[in-house]
Amino acid sequence: MAAQMDGKPIGVFDSGIGGLTVVRALRRALPAEPLVYLGDTARLPYGNKSPETVRRYSRTNVSFLLGREVKLVLIACNTASALALPELAGELPVPVLGAVEPGARAAARATRSRRIGVIGTLGTVKSEAYVRAIQAIGDFEVVQHACPLLVPLAEEGWTDDPLTVAIAERYLTELCAKQRDLDTLVLGCTHYPILKPALAQAAAKVFGRPLTLVDSADAMAAEAAAVLAQRGALASGAGGLACFVTDHARITDLAPRFLGEDPGPVAVVDL
Amino acid sequence: MAAQMDGKPIGVFDSGIGGLTVVRALRRALPAEPLVYLGDTARLPYGNKSPETVRRYSRTNVSFLLGREVKLVLIACNTASALALPELAGELPVPVLGAVEPGARAAARATRSRRIGVIGTLGTVKSEAYVRAIQAIGDFEVVQHACPLLVPLAEEGWTDDPLTVAIAERYLTELCAKQRDLDTLVLGCTHYPILKPALAQAAAKVFGRPLTLVDSADAMAAEAAAVLAQRGALASGAGGLACFVTDHARITDLAPRFLGEDPGPVAVVDL
Fold this sequence. Notes:
The first copy, chain A, has 271 residues and is of the alpha/beta class. Chain A has eleven helices and ten strands. The mean pLDDT of chain A is 94.
């Protein structure tokens, strides 16, 4: 056990409720940690907003988390990570982890063929954030495909469903046409972890062999654990979760689906 | 031929590109009319924004159209219709038609069983705009079901597709469980007209008989024709279309899909 301990919470924010998959991964990897989640559901989506607006929203989200005395901030939103992380990292009194780099590093470690596939929303694919992050690590071929139906399928809760497998097969067939020798597939959206079994089944069928699926939420949780361990800042308590959103619409339906358990009372805050 | 003619354009706005199905219906019903379309693609979606913001955006959209000297405004967006139409109708120097009432009136005329189904986005279903509009006409039973996957399916262009039919069957099965004697189905979203064949096929299978599908875009075009005829304000020229958006993302892909033809050059405007 580390000499120092830190009972302060880890803070996670996302533009919506998809980031609860990161909270679920954190609760599995670090059950002793208290967690604070903020879903900026009133102002989603961030993907079609200007960089200035996304930076402003990200700052207010981080201020809210710092007000809860967090010891580490996880940005579970691709858009906010890409646009606000560099600035925030230089400004904040606590470490910050983004949504893209942990998944990129995990994929670079996992691949044998050095050929990596990335699936994500239209915004994430267009931003090429994963391509840049993976190719900054080394000489890898990266192919991408946007899968716009996967977010609404996840939100519908059609997770273990032949229709979802059929739709995933269609998307992965298009990815396979770009590079059939990839061995690693990055789930580049916080909504996708709950579709992992369907995606694994579809990938095995399309590629004729299992692919290594890199779950960005797991990768973020693993890096959070490493950062806290390195700083001697792990907690040793009973853990816990405090959930906040900026609009309550659909939270009751969606939160348990992404979190994998009942979130308890979810408070609405006005930022 | 009417004694008076009016060569000024009809103006249509939507938060995105779905409203191009209304333009397509107008071009079929009124081929002599010049049309101006504005898709506020930079600020979509409207569904999760405050009423004040939606009213402000709607006003700037209408100001843009009035600057193009339109003789009639069509609001091809359910949210903007519900929140801004009552105010705008009292303020503008030209008539305004919303997205909900024409479809509601067409459904009330079409039904024999007086039992009407409505499908739409989560926002539209939650607003109960169609329920209120139909029940304001007379004594009808209205059942609704939200179909969040239909918009991304339409945007993917998977229109004549067994997966789309299968997803529509699942949604309509849930609608049928609410009321199996309905005979009329309102397509309560501007994206849905391009899925009409798939929806008709799914409805016939689920209900065991064909339903009358009320296409809101066709209903809006029919009412526009009636309003202009009544005012002696129909055009007699060669028609034409000028398309504007506030952000160019995906326009090249999506516009022909919803319009059913090439839109010509689409100009980006900053409102």
